[in-house]
Amino acid sequence: MEIRYSKQASKFLQKQSKQVQLRIIKAINKLPAGDVKKMQGMNYYRLRVGDFRVIFSNDGTVLMVEKIGNRGEVYKD
Asked: Phi/psi zone of residue 60: left (φ > 0), alpha (ψ -120 to 50 degrees), beta?
């Protein structure tokens, strides 16, 4: 399965420390395992990685990471 990152997701990862980057990337690479829930009223899923949330969509061949952010901030917009 191919994993793609949006511009926002890439920028957020670059701003984090190496340790946090590795933790989030490891969790994304292990998908669909992990704390994943379907978001209500949307075609997105959310992955919980500590205090961070990863919003992504999955069409079977491409997993698109739409947004990564802190808990609470990521859901705004």
From this structure: left
